[in-house]
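2024-03-11 09:14:02 DEBUG pipeline.ingest accepted 1 chain
2024-03-11 09:14:02 DEBUG pipeline.ingest length=263
2024-03-11 09:14:03 DEBUG pipeline.predict start
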Amino acid sequence: MEATRTAKETEDQAPLVSVRFLIILTAAVTALALLSLAISLLGDRIGERWSLAGHSASAEPVDVSIGLDRLRVPSNAIRFEDQRRSGRSERLDLFVLWPEMTGYSRENRRRFDDLAHAKSLIFLQLSQSTMSRDMSGRVDPIYSHLFTGTPESGPFGLSLHRFRAGTGYDREVLLTAPRPGQADYAVRCLLPEPGDLPSNSDCQRDIHAGRDLTVLYRFSSELLSDWQQIDKAIEVYIRDRIVSGPTSPNLPMRGNSATKDSL
């Protein structure tokens, strides 16, 4: 009888929750808290990347060497993520707002992401020159032999030249204008048909810059009224980002996922 009472008292005095269970429970709660924190931090980073849609809002400079030229360009003006690294490269793709000539920012993200606003963008492609003449220099020796008919009056003081069928420039036109002391301005455009809307890059022109750079830039035909200002702004933008001094060491050349546009 005494033994039975002692056993019952011992059972009554035993803790309802064992120490081992408390340790396991505490560890589980701690693990869940850490997991929740990790998900929160990771979610913020993923959410930020999604909101940027592959763009960068950072103005941190990237030092890139292309051929004989070295440039320092803000990250937010570089279109593709794999090009936002310093070093040697075959080419560099940029985009800037017109007329601000600035790269991506959260405040202006709609103008980069929304097609309705994208016509205020200018796209630039920088590469080592492979031709001795830029587009203006190719008008007389090359393009003039591909025209058909007589020049027409084009928009905004430009002359319009049509290409013969089968030249590889079907539906495109060349718009030109004289410039005092310089070769004629020239830009190739795929002008929209009546009733159609222009795209954000249906005009393109290339110029030489630096020691050995070709700068191909594309813009919407809606901006043709600013052709003189755009050309000057592109020239100044690239000139201001060319830095003196030796190019980057002979590291392996970075390839690019983007395709090269036709000139």
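2024-03-11 09:14:41 DEBUG pipeline.report The helical segments are 2-13, 19-52, 109-113, 227-241.
2024-03-11 09:14:41 DEBUG pipeline.predict end
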